[in-house]
Amino acid sequence: MEISDRDFAAAVQRGQKARSDFVAASARYDAGAHALVVVLSNGVFVGFPVERLEGLQGADAAQLAHVRVEAGGLGLHWPDLDADLYVPALMEGIFGSRTWMAAQLGASGGQARSEAKASAAKRNGARGGRPRRASEG
């Protein structure tokens, strides 16, 4: 696959912007808050609850504390967990892969409680519930 000079220049520009905006200088696990704390190169620090980050749920404090800043500050890596996070994505509220994030959003949506949802479930139940799938074969 070939890339044009224009596409290459645009990719370089996006990379430079990401490096200037969201580059981690350091990262650590805060056991008291059960959070990942990332210090950016501009001195700003941001915390994230570890249970909201892909690959970190259920890890113990020693595993979480063993975090490395890699890729010139663009990545965080936990060798004990084989987990990686992309710093610019974290800053945008993306705490894992697309598939993982979709599963998290779907799970929270399924747990939602509202009068509209309860009313719809009652109406559906009065009609006999969810239709059965037609059997194949």
Automatic annotation (TrEMBL):
Protein name: DUF2442 domain-containing protein
Species this protein is from: Xaviernesmea rhizosphaerae
Region annotated Disordered, chain positions: 112-137
A Pfam entry, by short name: DUF2442
Cited InterPro entries: DUF2442 (IPR018841)
